Amino acid sequence: MKKLIVILSVLVILTGFVFAATDTAGSQIGVTVENIAQLAIANVTGAAFEIEAATTEGGIPTINWTDSDGGDLQFTSTASDTYTRKITAQIAEGNLTWFTLKVALAALNGNESGSCGTNAAADAKTIPSASAVDLVTGIGTGWTGTGVGDGYGITYSGDIVPASAADMDIDTYTISVTYTITEGEAS
After folding, report:
1. Whole-angstrom Cα distance, residue 16 to residue 13?
2. Are 10 and 35 in contact (CB under 8 A)?
3. Cα 130 to Cα 92: distance, rounded to the nearest angstrom
4. pLDDT tens, position by position, 121-177
5. CA 186 to CA 106: how far, in whole Å?
6. What is the DSSP letter of 42?
7. pLDDT digits over 82-107, tens only?
């Protein structure tokens, strides 16, 4: 009988070790999503316009240019369910009365993810100095990627304003364009 009690005692002890080895524990991980609105003009190779004899012909009233070296419009955005973001452009410095600067955006390209908005400037838009013009609207939470060619490709074009051409002087001018990512419309 003693042997049976010893054997049963050993079995009870071993069973306790087996059940103790299957214990589990849990852990909670917090994830915080911050309000992010970051914008970059990347991969600019140099947008420039020149008025020179090689590009003009006597008697032409306006001269049109297009320069696709404006770079890539890239951004990262986190937005709540209550609003979207938009990207605007405005001439910040160097507004010329005799020159109209326009911007067009190519279709979204690259490693985009999420809600990267709607191209509102597929057709060239004049960039004003008094107010901003919408380029991309309806941006939610998403990003365009950061590689060469990622995002919306920027093409600038320009026209000489015939009525103000007399204001043009021989000089080199710089036009600064400010791009802004901001809250857009309510969702």
Report:
1. 5
2. no
3. 9
4. 999 999 998 899 999 999 999 999 999 999 999 999 988 888 888 898 888 889 999
5. 26
6. E
7. 899 999 999 999 989 999 999 999 99
**Do 35 and 140 form a contact (C-beta atoms < 8 A)?**
no
Q: Looking at the chain, how many residues does it have?
A: 187
End-to-end CA separation in angstroms for the chain: 80
> Amino acid identity, residue 63?
I
Spatial distance between the Cα atoms of 179 and 128, rounded to a whole number of angstroms: 12
Cα–Cα distance measured from residue 84 to residue 82, given in angstroms and rounded to the nearest whole number = 7
User: Would you list the DSSP string of 11-72?
Assistant: HHHHHHHHHHTT--------------EEEEEE----------GGG--TT-S--EEEE--S-E
| CB-facing half-sphere around the CA of 159: CA atoms within 13 A | 13
pTM: 0.80
| Residue whose pair of structure tokens reads 């690259």 in the numeric block | 110
